[in-house]
Amino acid sequence: MSVSLARQRTGEGGFTLIETLVAMALMGLVLSALANITAQWLPNWNRGLERIQRSELIGIALQRIGADLAAAEYVSANRDGRHPLFDGSELSVTFVRTALGPNAGPGLDVVRVGETTDRQGLVTVRSRAPFRPLPQASSLSEQIHFGEPVLLLRAPFRLSFAYAGQDRIWKSSWHDSDKLPAAIKLTVRDAASERILSISTVAPVHVQSAAQGDCAQPDGDCDGKSVAPNNSQGNSQGNSQGNQGNSRGNSQAGNGTIGQGGSQ
């Protein structure tokens, strides 16, 4: 039995211990080279991916804020108020818009978009409250209690606002104005480097003044053009003038006939 097994083993092939050690050493060199290459490009890949994700989140936030600002309504704080309920500063803006949400019914909301703080630092939040007429001589912070906060931006990114009317002159605040701003600039900057991101945009406001307009002339001549008279008034005046002419003609003809009879 031992002789036959020895003959079978002499015909078999395999690796020696030295060949196995050399193969393992070569495999280790290849793996180490791959590890070095991966260690170099993987952080750059992660940073690029995070930058893309942040840009997408900032773009979504700006799109949401721009849609809210574009839908701002000219609504005064109460019946006696002459100014729209709109308060804009460099870091926050408060305005009135149509209620928006899955469970929102018909009505108006007071929306505030601005900075606040949480456990991780400064954040830009959108909050809302149902609109109700405010008493006179009362501030927004005292009468309106905002809720349902929605996180839009987080540090290190900060959002600032600028406002412009029809003259396109940008201002850092908009308070107690007779009209809403025509456009609002949304500027996003990196708080660490103070670098303004190219994703910043401008949101136009669709409504600037009240629905009844600013015309105070009784004849309606607000644009330099006279208003055409009503057809019913023109017809009544023409009919009255025609009737007066007919009556005058009949009286003159009757007087002539009487005069001729008397002379005969």
Describe this protein's structure.
- This protein starts with a helix and ends with a helix.
- It has helices at residues 2-10, 17-70, 140-143, 231-263, and strands spanning 87-88, 92-98, 108-118, 121-130, 147-154, 157-164, 183-190, 195-196, 201-204.
- Residues 223-240 and 247-264 have low confidence and may be disordered.
- The chain has a five-stranded antiparallel sheet with strand order 1-2-3-4-5, with helices on one face. Strands 6, 7, 8 and 9 form a four-stranded antiparallel sheet that branches.
- The protein is α+β, with helices and mostly antiparallel strands.
- A hairpin with a 4-residue loop joins strand 7 and strand 8 (195-196).
- It has a domain at 64-204.
- The chain is built from four helices and nine strands.
